[in-house]
Amino acid sequence: MTFVPANEGIEKLKPYQPGKPISELERELGITNIVKLASNENPLGCSDKVKEAVAAELAEIGRYPDGGGFILKDQIQQQFGFAHDRITLGNGSNDLLEMFARAFVSEKDSVVYSQHAFAVYALVTQAIHAEAIEVPAKGFAHDLDAMAAAIKDNTKLVFIANPNNPTGTWFEEAEFEAFMQKVPANVIVVLDEAYVEYFPENFNSLKYLEQYPNLIVSRTLSKCYGLAALRVGFALASKEVTDYLNRIRQPFNVNHLAMVAAVAALKDEAFIEKSREVNKAGMKQLEEGFKALGLNYVPSRANFILVDVQADPGQTFNALLKEGVIVRPVGISNHLRVSIGTEAENAKFLTALAKVLGLEAKA
Ligand SMILES: *Cc1c(COP(=O)(O)O)cnc(C)c1O
Questions:
Q1: Are 115 and 137 in contact (CB under 8 A)?
Q2: Which of 165, 169, 205, 253 to mutate to test the pocket of ligand 1 (most atoms within 8 A of CB)?
Q3: Pocket flag, ligand 1, residue 93 (CB < 6 Å)
Q4: 17-34, pLDDT tens digit by residue?
Q5: Omega before 166 cis (within 30°)?
Q6: How far is Cα 158 from Cα 155, in angstroms, rounded to an integer?
Q7: Which of 179, 198, 284, 345 yields a CA-CA distance of 20 to 30 A from 188?
Q8: Helix-helix angle 269-293:343-357, to 10 degrees
Q9: What are 93-111's pLDDT values in tens digits?
Q10: ∠89-165-176 over CA atoms, to 5°?
Q11: Three-state DSSP state, 361
């Protein structure tokens, strides 16, 4: 067979490296009782209301889903106040991030994002063989001034995440407003809010959608809502932007069970409240644990935290695997990203970390 080269962008593309699945480590080590704090999943799983709602719909599996996503868009409209023609549903927000790039960026264009930003921004840019403009981070955070200044004539889209993954860093409304004022009206700004439910008091992005027709707010049900396996995300934007996104969206990109689950998840505010409390308590537990071990960390407003292990992150990651704990190296020297787990999971991780680093906790 002759070798058929892929398009230039894809030739050079290194696929996304997901967190290691528990089942894989179980097979490799022949152990159970593994703690996975690697993919920012909700340690409580999902709401019981979601399980009931999905169970009640199993008989529908033989039918195509509603391609328009009526029930889910209706729930989103009720909760967030945006009409159906301003909502785009995604098979996870990853699906949406790819749609944004494909709808608005072509090969001759450029995309701006920050150093240490969510890895998918670079991947979707590379996949369409557009120019990537990676702006150096300030500390670990987005440097919004520098990002605005990096916009060129051929820039079509800017990705920003608040809070950012893998750093957990955030920006305030005033910084965002100053940034938006500087971005030309023909450049799309994607505000990725995958973790917004954890610290919602800090930032209200939705009001900016009226002011800026070039703004897209992207949300996911994978994190705080606990639906990572089902793949549901949604984007809110102007009617015009939404129309373009829906031209390229696959007709049945979100499946029926996922939509039913998402409706139940969005309605269950008590579960979100509980998840937030568990996260706040777990964050405190890890911060105190790191302090006791003499380790620095990057303050976070998400459901994970970046810790400076003062050692090679790859080796530390591997040593932790042998202790039955999966965390995530994220390409930042000396640092590992740890998702906030339950109290018991966090405790197991802290004990394992102290062991593999040869440290002793000081009270
Ligand atoms: C996890 C994550 C997403 C994607 O989540 P989906 O499961 O695809 O919805 C998007 N953006 C950021 C910053 C994330 O951390």
A1: yes
A2: 165
A3: yes
A4: 888 898 898 898 888 889
A5: yes
A6: 8
A7: 198
A8: 20
A9: 999 999 999 999 999 999 9
A10: 80
A11: coil
State the number of CA atoms in the 13 A half-sphere of 88 facing the CB.
31
Distance, in Å, from the CA atom of 312 to the CA atom of 316, rounded to the nearest integer, reads: 6
| Mean pLDDT over each residue of the chain, to the nearest integer | 96
Cα 279 to Cα 340: distance, rounded to the nearest angstrom = 6
Is the Cβ atom of 88 under 6 angstroms away from ligand 1?
no
**pTM metric for this prediction:** 0.96
Any atom of ligand 1 within 6 Å of the Cβ of 98: no
**Cα distance between residue 85 and residue 63, in whole Å:** 25
Q: Which residues face 308 on adjacent strands?
A: 335
Q: What's the rounded Cα separation, in Å, for the pair 148 and 215?
A: 14
> How many angstroms separate the CA atoms of 93 and 52, rounded?
24
Tokens of 356: 């593999």
Atom of ligand 1 nearest to the CA of 302: 15
